[in-house]
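Is this the right way to post structure tokens for a design question? Let me know if I should format differently. Anyway, here goes:
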């Protein structure tokens, strides 16, 4: 069943069109109104077989060539990053590619500010903006909170300990979905690599997140930490000062610690806990109860006085 990216929503969805499976491309007329306007046509249509074919072709390509290809291939392409080392290398490559063709559409970056990042991370963002003026940065914070105090006034202190899944929903998952919606993201670049271990050990370069309707691209999936680090040194890429203090993967200050010699790169994330991901790479359905509560709250706030909102099942 092919993944179709539509012009109207600029997002991915699944469509049952056998003719598209053969070619990997299709007009999409069977899925849209019979209007002859090109606005009703999908921007592109990819079958799972075609995604597999692309992965086979991209597997042995240099990340910069993968990025060049994706910049042409995918409409509304963005980069999602927490300014980790891999994301910074991707950003540097994208900046160089943009310099090759300044008139082309840039690949903008978006950052999810949980309000609990290290000071060193915020300092890095300022340095990145100064170094890469041709890479626009969009910042998304938890809904209704612009400071840690505002968030804790609403949900209490140490929500990340008391209700970690709820915390992930509020500071990562919901802001991520909001970023996808507001920016009309079709495909997103991220910094996951196989060498990081755990669930990332077998990730493909291109994958379809069917729940979120997004094409995810891991342009540096095949690179090791050494390759990433060597690139940073060779090209003088700005990086988080914490990396010089034993950290290899930096997230929120309350769930990040230095990594010991011989440990996996992400061993310092949620040390002593069973979780290995912050939420944005988990299945969306894991957070469905929080999404339902949020939707009900929004409906209640928007309802006219006296109108009764039915409970969510």
């Amino acid at each position: 069943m092919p993944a179709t990216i539509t012009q109207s929503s600029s997002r991915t969805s699944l469509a049952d069109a056998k003719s598209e499976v053969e070619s990997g491309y299709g007009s999409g007329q069977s899925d849209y109104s019979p209007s002859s306007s090109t606005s009703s046509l999908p921007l592109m249509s990819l079958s799972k077989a075609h995604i597999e074919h692309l992965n086979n072709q991209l597997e042995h390509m240099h990340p910069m060539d993968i990025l060049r290809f994706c910049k042409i291939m995918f409409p509304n392409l963005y980069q999602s990053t927490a300014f980790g080392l891999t994301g910074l290398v991707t950003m540097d490559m994208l900046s160089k590619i943009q310099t090759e063709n300044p008139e082309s559409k840039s690949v903008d970056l978006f950052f999810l500010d949980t309000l609990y990042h290290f000071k060193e991370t915020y300092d890095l963002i300022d340095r990145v903006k100064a170094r890469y003026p041709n890479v626009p940065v969009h910042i998304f914070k938890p809904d209704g909170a612009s400071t840690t105090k505002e968030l804790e006034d609403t949900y209490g202190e140490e929500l990340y300990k008391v209700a970690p899944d709820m915390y992930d929903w509020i500071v990562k998952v919901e802001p991520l979905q909001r970023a996808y919606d507001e920016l009309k993201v079709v495909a997103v670049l991220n910094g996951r690599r196989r060498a990081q271990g755990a669930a990332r050990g077998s990730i493909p370069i291109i994958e379809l997140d069917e729940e979120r309707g997004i094409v995810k691209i891991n342009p540096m999936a095949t690179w090791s930490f050494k390759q990433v680090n060597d690139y940073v040194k060779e090209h003088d890429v700005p990086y988080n000062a914490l990396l010089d203090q034993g950290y290899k993967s930096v997230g929120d200050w309350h769930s990040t610690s230095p990594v010991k010699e011989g440990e996996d790169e992400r061993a310092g994330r949620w040390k002593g806990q069973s979780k290995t991901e912050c939420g944005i790479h988990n299945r969306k359905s894991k957070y469905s109860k929080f999404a339902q509560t949020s939707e009900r709250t929004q409906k209640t706030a928007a309802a006219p006085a006296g109108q009764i909102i039915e409970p969510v099942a």
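Format looks fine. Someone answered above. Worth noting: The first helix runs from residue 18 to 23. The radius of gyration is 21 Å.
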